[in-house]
Amino acid sequence: MSAFEARFAEALARLPDYLGSHVVVSVTALVLGLAVSLPLALIVARRPAWRGVALALTSIVQTIPGLALLALFYPLLLGVAALSEQWTGFGFSALGFLPSVLALALYSMLPVLRNTVTGLMGIDPAVSEAALGVGMTRRQSLWMVELPLALPIIMAGIRTSAVWVIGTATLSTPVGQTSLGNYIFAGLQTQNWVSVLFGCVAAAVLALAVDQLLAQVERGVQARQRPRVLGGALGLGLVFLAAIVPGLSRPAPGYVIGAKPFAEQYILGALIEQRLAQAGMRASRRDGLGSIVVFNALAAGEVDVYVDYSGTIWANQMGRSDAKPRAEVLAAVTQWLKAQHSIETLGGLGFENAYALAMPKAKSQALGIRSIADLAVHAPQLSIAGDYEFFARPEWSALRDAYGLAFREQRQMQSEFMYSAAAAGEIDVISAYTSDGRIAQHDLVVLDDPKQAIPPYDAILLVSPRRAHDSVFINALRPLVGAIDVTLMRAANLKVAQGGNGSSPEAVARRLWGEIRK
Question: What is the pLDDT of residue 86?
């Protein structure tokens, strides 16, 4: 079997889960959006001041990037869930489904609200007056005359809204909602372009299918042909059932594994899943979560286990910027996690994945740059690229301030593109990860940090408070502690980056476990 065939088969096997979850969250959001926007349109249509405010507010929502809107709902709901549990004893999950539904429902409102108002405002006043003249009340005129006349325009708004929601739902992966976006986010991070293309095509086909079925309903409404309306509605029902039925027979997973959005985390997430499966435990993965999202989810018990890095906790969660020895940082992080969040640290996996600055070896040698201190002299003539969160992290501030770094150009890009851009000479310096095998693959060199501005980054296995006393669960994970050195991790990361047969995170994780057991 070729690499393409293997990756296509893997993507196809995941389709029932991803598609079903995508359809459920999209339909729920669309129904919620309609339930709010249609009554709101009826209320404001004849009130100019209210109408202007409603349309302005829903238009503002559309200017917010979809990923940002989804991400904003998670911490908000997390706080509400904590208050609810404290005051009423009833809590709810703020991860995944709920923030996705609420954000997508907001996104769905503008087309429906605008088209409903436009349809009602476009009706000839003489028609309404005639309805009133034959004895109808205002309410009867609205439901029996005005809405039927405006319905084709309203249906056009619903079609637009449905396509928007289905497309934007692919962005719900970073807040923990499984969707067709899992193909895209995971594929980008692991350079699995078959997965990326599969996810894009699947989302486009779903959107087009729903749009055409809604168009059938719209044409039936316009022509007053009930069979066409029923046919379109039946088609939509069949699409929904076909998407969700395959997932109904699957048992609910007992444990949830979190992972951040880069290749190493996908590998480690798959490795943890395989270890639990070997111990007879069901588990599911929430891949591609943002750093803050996955940490908060672990503290809240919505994720049971994931791998983080001591430097990330030290700098981002504890707010520390002082330089301390490696062992001291790890001890302080372990103590803080236990005291502040009741999170258990099972121990380090055995390797460090620190942020670092890297550049092409040939350029480094030509300019005599061996350390970040050397780099500071040449920085005004050089360009630097970082991943999408690097320049907002305290590590970058610490580096910049410690060495007085001021680059000619500063760019953000996906981490998998940075290495090839540096190797091609399009970027001079990149933010790299010390356990990434692509450093050697692209002939880059990691610059020394003599002032130790970047803290140590031991990979540590964290367990949520609700699983802290689950001895069977913890014993299943203990063989991973101290078992992975940086050479093994670099080789695993490189295998994923190179692609080809056996380069999926799951396949690489199986080989990594085989190396660990030797």
Answer: 76
